[in-house]
Amino acid sequence: MALFCPHCGTQANDGQVVCLNCGRALPQFHQRSQAPQVQDNGGAGYGILGFFIPLIGLILYLIWKDEKPNSAKAAGTGALIGVIASIVFSILLVILLAASGDYWVYP
Which terminus, N or C, of the chain has the lesser number of Cβ atoms within 10 Å? Predict the structure, then answer.
């Protein structure tokens, strides 16, 4: 498709930014290789998923860290908080069982 400068009428090549005849900027009506926009809202759902299933949160973080950084951060943060919460809960459970004493007595 032939493009023409709207200022002087000279034919311009596709993708040309400036008219070679008059030196003025050419309007860009379309872009041929425009990539589709990736929606990256960093929703809390990925954080909750990562909290309850940390392995999936880690996998999502590793997959999305370049193309969807906000969603990757939400999933990774949820996974990290889920792992830390599991460790703290396990430590508290061991302390509670050790303090009760009944579970450590053998007949």
Answer: C
Question: What are the C-alpha distances in Å from 102 to residues 15, 89, 106?
Answer: 80, 20, 9
Comparing CA positions, the residue from 21, 82, 33, 32 lying closest to residue 55 is 82
Co-location of 18 and 56 in the same domain: no
Beta bridge partners of 25: 18
Per-residue pLDDT of the chain (107 residues; tens, 9 = 90+): 567 888 888 888 877 888 889 988 888 754 444 556 777 887 889 999 999 999 999 999 999 999 899 999 999 999 999 999 999 999 999 998 888 776 655 65
Does residue 24 sit in the same domain as residue 48? no
Q: What's the pTM? A: 0.59
Buried b (16+ CB within 10 A) or exposed e, 84-93: eeeeeeeeee
Q: Output the furthest CA–CA distance in the chain (Å, rounded).
A: 102
Q: End-to-end CA distance of the chain, in Å?
A: 92
